[in-house]
Amino acid sequence: MRTIDDRIVHELNTTVPTASFAGKIDAGQTCKQLYESLMEAHTSRDRFIKNCIAQTSSVVKHLREEREKNLDDLTLLKQLRKEQTKLKWMQSELNVEEVVNDRSWKVFNERCRIHFKPPKNE
């Protein structure tokens, strides 16, 4: 799901012209399309990660309630720990996502700032 972020430098180098080729390609339209693709990808990934966090949180809550009823069940404890680890991993994935997004927007702004101005509300 991060393909667009992984390839943004290559994408910009091949689609946004340098000053010597500025007249041959509509850089404004190209940057607008890339902006829309980035926004869609970032929003989609954020939604998926947060959905996974919500689902896993629900499972952890349920397992904690079950664990309180049956303190001697080691299998339940093991399952709870596994889900808690998964939840922490997913929460840390939000931090990774923030770093990836920041990097992509920095590169995008460096190359497209003179060709395209994103809407203020986003």
Architecture overview:
- The protein is an all-alpha fold and 122 residues long.
- The protein has one domain (27-112).
- Helices cover 77% and strands 0% of the residues.
- The protein is built from four helices and no strands.
- It has helices at residues 3-6, 8-15, 27-69, 74-112.
- The chain is rod-shaped and about 70 Å long.
- The two termini are 21 Å apart.
- The mean pLDDT is 86.
- This is Protein MIX23.
List its traits.
single chain, mainly alpha, 4 helices, rod-shaped
- Beta strands, count: 0
- Shape descriptor reads rod-shaped
Rg is: 21 Å
Strand content: under 5%
Organism: Myotis brandtii
Pfam family, one: MIX23
Family: Belongs to the MIX23 family.
Protein name: Protein MIX23
Summarize the structure.
This protein is an all-alpha fold and 122 residues long. It has helices spanning 3-6, 8-15, 27-69, 74-112.
